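Changelog note: in this version the structure field was regenerated for every chain. One regenerated record is shown below for reference.
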Amino acid sequence: MAQYELWYTDPLGNRISYIPNSSGFSYVKVLGDVGVAQFSTPLRGLDHEANIPDRRIMIYRQAYGVAQVLEVVAFLDKFTYATSQDGLGQFGAGASDPNVLLKRRIVAYPSGDSKATTDETSTSRSMRVQVANNLLFATDADRNIIDYGVSNIAPVTAGPAVKKQFAWKNLLELLQDLQAFSKQGGAEIFFAIVPTSETDMQFRVYPNQPGADRTLATGKTPVVFSLQRGNLLSPTLTYDYSNEANYIYAGGKGQEDQRNIQEASDDVSIGRSPFARKEKFVSAISGVKDNSDAEVLAKAKDALEKNRARVTFSGTIISTARTEYGRDWFRGDKVSVDYAGFQFDTIIRAVAVSVDGDGRETIQARVELSNE
């Protein structure tokens, strides 16, 4: 069983008091969004002024056989006092991890301002520049928090180039859009504000996956989740051919028999049976510059990709003695999943941890795959 240590700090991370008697706590660590934490403690045990927004909760965790790590830093933003019929009082608090700082900012520049437009060489650089423009080196100095322990990662060039305008857009939503854009471009770029010490944190970007490669094929310390290993719960695997199209006709500019028609097909899919050919026509007029065969054919191939059969998987992975969270795998790691003769690699995008008053913990993480 892992050991925990909780501390209450001021908004800059300086310790105020140890929290020795939590009635239970939980937290969710998630990629590309705001993680949350919550805990409760008897009112009689409060030896500090608790309900002050933006003071922090720090959760240290020590998994079996490894060193203690700073697992969670979160800004307090919700407080509850309650008293039961028997007169027992309870204090509860909710908090948000440092990504909430991204949620608190917008791109506060008008349309046409260079800082409301990105024309960068890579997605990762676009992310970094927008954080700098709105958190660290904003034109309005009152918006800057660089003097309070927040910094930016050194330049990283990864992900496709992006051109986008986004005046007045929420900063977190913008970064999520950029992440989705990079994923569509075949090189997903992850981001987070991560604690580097009790008082410092840094905005970081991660090509490929934020954590380690622990896949069976290429990982140095492979981790596999399966029913047989007892670390996979409620898996569902679906092969869906119902909306498949495997022979595409794309129509470019021109009238009737003068129209530029290009064709793309998936011969393997068509060869499954004498009845397997599934045709579809798509327009290739919009976005085509000179109506060349190559341009129209590209539209046909794109439609073929978008209309292929779907394979989806979902399931829950858990921490076990042989695959323990915090020792063998972490949020952000790339791992292997084996189910029903189907093996694939996936990134652990979120981890949920809850600990009761006796220190018993429950750890679960969702793993999903979709070839969309």
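Spot check on this record: The domain at 3-96 is CATH 2.40.10 (Thrombin, subunit H). The two ends are 39 Å apart (CA to CA).
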